[in-house]
Amino acid sequence: MSTTTTALPAGLTAGVWTIDASHSEAAFAVRHAGISKVRGTVAITEGALTIGDDLASSSVTATLDPATVSTGDAGRDGHLKTADFFEIETYPTWTFTSTSVRSDGGDFVIAGDLTLHGVTRPVELATEFNGTAVDAYGNTRAGFSATTTISRKDFGLTWNAALEAGGVLVSDKVAMTIEISAIRQA
To answer: What burial class does residue 26 get, using C-beta atoms within 10 Å of its C-beta: 0-12 exposed, 13-18 middle, 19+ buried?
Structure first.
């Protein structure tokens, strides 16, 4: 059973926290040929968490660069950048803008608009606050982990190939995992 509260978690203070791109990542996994999963990453290039006095007055924005897609296979990465998939020449960025932040038991749900491949759809990120720490340079950092599952087709990503034994090469559902390290601004 989930409970809803608007109080900020211990250690998270009101203000602007910028996403540290070098310590943050968006990862994805998609079923391939119906029997295995292909995993990859896309760089989060910028973003911010504006933490209000409570969760309801807080917001999140992020920008991702699909040109940085990495699956460990250069040929596949090149194909993902083409018009068959991400079409990076036409759609060079993906964005997320929250519409609400709410508590769900000890975790959080960040609802917002994800724009990917020129299409905007609502998503909900099941989010865990991992705490705060002061790094070696005196920066106060906050860590978050979030997950969601999206439909490729909802974002106009419909390329596929039929398999001889039935089914398709690339599943529609894409599991996403986001790891964020954000630095409190003075």
So the answer is: buried
Beta-carbon-side half-sphere exposure of residue 168 (alpha carbons within 13 Å): 10
How far apart are the C-alpha atoms of 152 and 174, rounded to whole Å?
Answer: 7
CB-based burial of residue 45 (10 Å sphere; 0-12 exposed, 13-18 middle, 19+ buried)? Answer: middle
Residue pair 40/72 in contact by the 8 Å Cβ criterion: yes
Determine the Cα–Cα distance for residues 106 and 79; give it in Å rounded to an integer.
40
Count of CB atoms within 10 A of residue 125's CB? 22
Reported as a single tens digit per residue, the pLDDT across 74-110 is 999 999 999 999 999 999 999 999 999 998 888 899 9
141, 138, 11, 131: CA torsion to nearest 10: 40
What pTM does this model have?
0.90
For 15-184, the fitting CATH number among 3.40.50.300, 2.40.128.110, 3.90.226.10, 3.40.50.360 is: 2.40.128.110
Give 176's Cβ-side CA count (13 Å radius).
19
Helix (H) or strand (E) holding 80: helix 74-80
CA–CA separation, 50 and 68 (whole Å): 26
